[in-house]
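Entry 14. Two folds queued back to back today. First construct below, sequence then structure tokens.
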Amino acid sequence: MPLPTFPTLRFADINDGELGALAAWLRDSLATVQGEQARRAAVRDQVLRACLWQMTAAGPDDPRWTPQPWDAARIAAGPNVGRQGFIVRRCPDGCEQVDGQPRWELYIAGGGPVWTCLAREHLRPVAAVRRDDGMGRARCTYDCLCCMGDPRRHLTTAGTPAKTVRSPRMAYDSQVSGEITIDPPLPWAEIRDSGYLPGSAWLNNKTVKLRVVTDEVDTEHGLLLRQQAVGIVPVTEDSYNAHSLVADVQQLIDQFGGGRTFAGRLNGCGDDAGDLWRLEVRDGRAVEVQARIVWPDGSEGV
């Protein structure tokens, strides 16, 4: 990138106009140099990212690993090579009818999207740190993988399939009911762009939505309609995959919980016998509580 043309100066008898032209040249030259430095830094960053993606894609595989829900993994082939996230589940049987080989769904770290029909040879395990309080159900917006499962827990000897681990909130659908009330209600100005409104929560891949009520308010300008969110309810009355239910409720508490009380609970029932659970709010935290089945003789279990 060429520098600006140096102005014509008479150094023996320089005047204010020529000094101004010199100052303008110095200013323009500085801007040109800074622009070139920024361009080179951008190119260097692009090259570095491309190299890192190629290094990641060429990283070692572990033939002992069979993908399981919550395992951290990355894509090692195709246009999305290098993208990483966690295994959602094994694809339904329809994906396997092409060549008889299983496929998996991968939720990309940092907020999605979900890539489907990924063959095992196109996936690589990624070492991750699993939180002590669960299998990583907190779906955050960071790409550190700290809340995802460690695939090293699912290694077997080569050629021996790993035992399938079913996560109640990931592997299949649940029927969710109930409501968590919000007091005082949330005004429209706070919730209109939240992503949890009844008309947009499902499209935003949320597992809950805000229950919004409309009432009339008598003002000096006449009767006005007011909309407020008074509770948190399941995103649908039908069965659905509620794998991020705790995380979604916690996000609402963190975003709107200041000075408000959250009461009540959400009740869940999975497909497996005895899979009963509740979601409650305790001390500002969304907590999942598993049911205990006790028979008259004192024994427990299904």
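Second construct, same run, same settings:
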Amino acid sequence: MATQTYWLADPDGVHAPADGAATRDEMAAAGWVLVDELRPSDQVWTYNEQVRGWSKFGRDILHVWEARGWVPSAPPLVEGDVGPVIDLPVPGAEPAAVPVPDSKPEPKTTEAASPSTSKKENDRA
């Protein structure tokens, strides 16, 4: 007999599947709430075995991320369990601005001159 899959929402409203009544009950004891159905706008917890990390995606774009190895899965119920939570961009969205480091080289200082005296003053001394 196949194990029944239940969908639950965490305290923040992000959904995850629970395979079997025992997992459902464990998640409910940790504050998750059983939901009847998922809406396209609902967020879903996913896990990627290759990167060993968790992320959340909208149900409406979940198929895009499933093709990249992200599968719906409940996150660890114990803080610090397997893998980090990874923030990934929405496919097709503009990438976040990445600060570009200043390309100007740092001014070089010589050990002979002190910051309070100029080279001319050092030559006169």
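Quick look at the second one. The two ends are 95 Å apart (CA to CA). The helical segments are 21-29, 62-66, 119-124.
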